[in-house]
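To whoever is on call:

I kicked off a structure prediction for a single chain this morning and the downstream step that reads the tokens threw a length-mismatch warning. I double-checked the sequence; it's 178 residues and nothing unusual in it as far as I can see. Pasting both halves so you can look.
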Amino acid sequence: MNLGSNLIQRFFYLTPETIHNRVTAALLNHILRGQIFAQQLADLDEKIICIHVSDLDKTLLYQIKNKSIHPLKNTKTEIPRKGYHVKISSNLQDLFLLVTRQEDADRLFFQKRLTMEGETETGLYLRNLIEGADYSWNTHFQSTLDPVLSKPADYIFKRLNVDVILRKIFSQGCLFHP
């Protein structure tokens, strides 16, 4: 078995749901640092986004506040109490392909690999935000690293084609399936 073959699945199976929400929200907020499109989260302020990972039967619940993603603690009590504005359901690999823009939301939807329910306007805005995101590792490094380190980090990242390698690893699904 490949060492990292089911790393993400193990994380979801071995940790409580509140940890999933907190860790994934922290990871998403970190990834969004320095990105121009992250400012557009302001238009989703106070919206509750529910993500159901169908193959793991796990539900993640977030609220957007002040251009940041905040985890809601317990989906079993929070969903009935607060509801959600948008619910996105798909398997883990397709969700990752969607977020990394390796797969189009419409294509996943029409192939019945992705479902969205809730407020149409919020769902379309979120979809357009994901599809229109132009991620810049350089601006991310500048916003998260000391200025002395950000340029060398960007240079090394580009020189080693790390983004290409990561996309290949995830598109082949080797982190999702045993």
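Update from on-call: the warning came from a stale cache, not from the record. Cleared it. Sanity check on the structure: Residues 52 and 59 are 4 Å apart (CA to CA).
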